[in-house]
Amino acid sequence: MSSAASEVTPGVVLHARPLRENSRVVELVTERAGRVAAVARGRAGSVRPFVLLDLAWRGRGELPSLSVAEERRVYPLTGRRLVCGLYLNELVLRLFPRDAPLEDTLQTLTGAYTDLAQDRPADRILRRAEWQLLGGLDSGLAFIDPEELEPEAWYRYEPEHGLHDVPARTAGAVPGAALQALASGRDVPDNLARASRDFMRALIDAHLDGRPLQTRGLL
Predict the structure, then answer these.
(1) Quick check: do 9-74 and 79-218 share a fold?
(2) How many helices (H) and strands (E) in the chain?
(3) Which end of the chain has the lower number of beta carbons within 10 A, N or C?
(4) 107, 104, 112: which is closest to 86 by C-alpha?
(5) What are the angstrom distances between the C-alpha of 133 and each of 32, 55, 90, 142, 193?
(6) Domain ranges of the chain
(7) Which ranges of the sequence are coiled-coil (predicted)?
(8) Neighbours of 119 (CB within 10 A)
(9) Can you give the pTM of this predicted structure?
(10) Which fold has domain 9-74?
């Protein structure tokens, strides 16, 4: 860290692991500092995922000490919706390194938590969040204009080569209507849900170089 003490910033816990008695290492996503890790001791050691927190930390190096951890909002996730939240948290952990700035990532996560807690269709929430997260990692997705897509066409997207149209039902391709919905932030039609899921899964796998996501098998 560049400073001995941080300013208070909103954030959430992505993951926590024991360090020693009464302390844990917490992986965080914050509004001002992006993705960071800190040691949580004492009262701060009770922080948990799916809670919006006011956070601050002290100390230099890779693992400063969490000094502020005040709850602002709890997202009550249970069952499959809890698994969906864990999946999104793992996705951020695997896609983005520590100290990455991560513009809008906190907003993406808390927006998804809110929708999951309100019992909205989980698959639609995941597709929207996946697109937003990958857009922050791969600027090419942000330049896909839904107005320029043909609903009846099929498209394939590769991070190295961009978007191009392909013959119908080409492996790894997605219908234009599904891609339009993803790119515009709308819900994907139910009859295109599987195609959009497979399309996003292939993009995520390309960024992860084939490394598996532990929570994906639980969805």
Answers:
(1) no
(2) 6, 8
(3) C
(4) 112
(5) 17, 22, 12, 11, 19
(6) 9-74, 79-218
(7) none
(8) 8
(9) 0.91
(10) OB fold (Dihydrolipoamide Acetyltransferase, E2P) (2.40.50)
Asked if pLDDT for residue 139 goes beyond 70, the answer is: no
Using the Cα atoms of residue 71, residue 86, residue 119 and residue 181 in order, give the sign of their dihedral: positive
| Structure-block tokens of residue 148 | 């320029």
Return the amino acid letter for 118.
Q
Amino acid at 142: A
| Per-residue pLDDT at 99 | 80
Report, as an integer, the average pLDDT of 42-50. 83
143, pLDDT greater than 90: no
pLDDT computed for residue 138 by the predictor: 62
Length of the chain: 219
Q: Confirm if 70 and 11 have CB atoms less than 8 A apart.
A: no
Mutual angle of helices 193-208 and 176-184, in 10-degree steps: 70
CATH 3.10.420.10 fits 79-218, yes or no: no
In this structure, what are the phi and psi dihedrals at residue 67, rounded to the nearest 5 degrees? -110, -20
* Amino acid making up residue 185: G
- In single-letter form, the type of residue at position 203 comes to L
Structure tokens at 96: 């983005």
Share of the chain residues as helix, strand and coil, in percent rounded to the nearest 5: 40, 25, 30
What is the phi/psi pair of residue 151, to 5°? -60, -35
